[in-house]
Write a structure and sequence with these properties.
The chain has 6 helices and 9 strands; from the N terminus they run H-H-E-H-E-H-E-E-H-E-E-E-H-E-E. With 219 residues, the protein is of the alpha/beta class. It has a single domain, classed as Vaccinia Virus protein VP39 (Rossmann fold, 3-Layer(aba) Sandwich), CATH 3.40.50. Helix 1 packs parallel to helix 4 and helix 5 crosses helix 6.
C-alpha cells in the first residue's frame, strides 16, 4: 500500500535540509530555559514511572534525544527522514536512532516508558492526529508519559522554501485545547498544559507544551 503523500512530502523536505537544519537547531535548548525546565520535569516523571525506554519521535538531528540522555533518561530517536537519522548518528554515535513514522511505530505494545514529540506532529493533517495519538497510546507502557510541543494556532501553512532550498510541505498550527481533547479521547490522562510566548528573535508563534500519561494498570 502506498503511504500517504504528506509523509512523502515531509520526508523529502527534511532530507533536503538535514545538514542546515542541524546547524541551526542542535544548540537551541541552550537559550531556552523554560523548555529545559519542562524536559527536566518530564525526565523525572518518566524515571519515576519505571525508567523504560523513551522514544524521541521526530527526533531530527538528535539534540533532544541527547539532552534526555544527559538527564538520565534512556532515550532513542525515531525520524521519518533518513538524512536526519544519518546526521543524528554522526553527531551522537553513542545513541540509537531509527528511521520510522509516527503513523506506524515499529515497536511492541506497551514498550515505552515515555514519548517525546517536539514540533514533529505539525506535519500531520489534523484528521490523522487521532490515529497517531492512538499509536502513541499503544506503544506506551501503563503509567508511561508523553510530552508534545507544537506551534499554537489554528491554520495550515504551505511551506515552499527552507534554508534556501525549495520544499513543498504543509505545517499546521494547532489549538492546544483541541489537541488535549484528542489525547483524552484515545485514553491518555492530561497532566499539564502550557502555552509560552515566542523567544524574541528566534520564533514567531506561541509554543504549546502538553504532558499526558497512560493510565497505570496497578490498583
Amino acid at each position: 500500500m502506498a503511504e500517504p503523500s504528506f509523509l512523502d512530502d515531509t520526508r523529502a523536505a527534511y532530507d533536503s535540509v538535514a545538514a542546515d537544519y542541524a546547524k541551526r537547531f542542535q544548540a537551541e535548548l541552550t537559550g531556552k530555559p523554560m523548555d529545559r525546565a519542562l524536559f527536566s520535569a518530564f525526565a523525572e516523571l518518566a524515571l519515576a514511572a519505571g525508567g523504560g525506554p523513551v522514544a524521541d519521535i521526530g527526533c531530527g538531528p538528535g539534540h533532544v534525544t541527547a539532552y534526555l540522555n544527559e538527564l538520565g533518561v534512556p532515550a532513542f530517536g525515531i525520524d521519518l527522514s533518513p538524512e536526519m537519522v544519518a546526521v543524528a548518528r554522526r553527531s551522537y554515535p553513542g545513541l540509537r536512532f531509527d528511521q520510522g513514522s509516527m503513523t506506524g511505530l515499529d515497536l511492541p505494545d506497551g514498550h515505552l516508558g515515555g514519548i517525546v514529540a517536539m514540533y514533529s506532529i505539525i506535519h500531520i493533517p489534523p484528521d490523522v492526529l487521532p490515529d497517531v495519538f492512538a499509536e502513541f497510546h499503544r506503544a506506551l507502557a501503563p503509567g508511561g508519559h508523553l510530552m508534545l510541543a507544537f506551534q499554537a494556532g489554528d491554520e495550515r501553512r504551505h511551506v515552499t522554501e527552507a534554508f534556501g532550498r525549495a520544499v513543498s510541505v504543509d505545517a499546521y498550527r494547532l489549538p492546544p485545547d483541541r489537541v488535549a481533547g484528542l489525547l483524552t479521547e484515545v485514553g491518555l490522562i492530561m497532566t499539564a498544559q502550557l502555552v509560552r510566548e515566542p523567544y524574541e528573535g528566534l520564533e514567531t508563534d506561541q509554543r504549546a507544551y502538553l504532558l499526558a500519561r497512560k493510565p497505570s494498570t496497578r490498583p
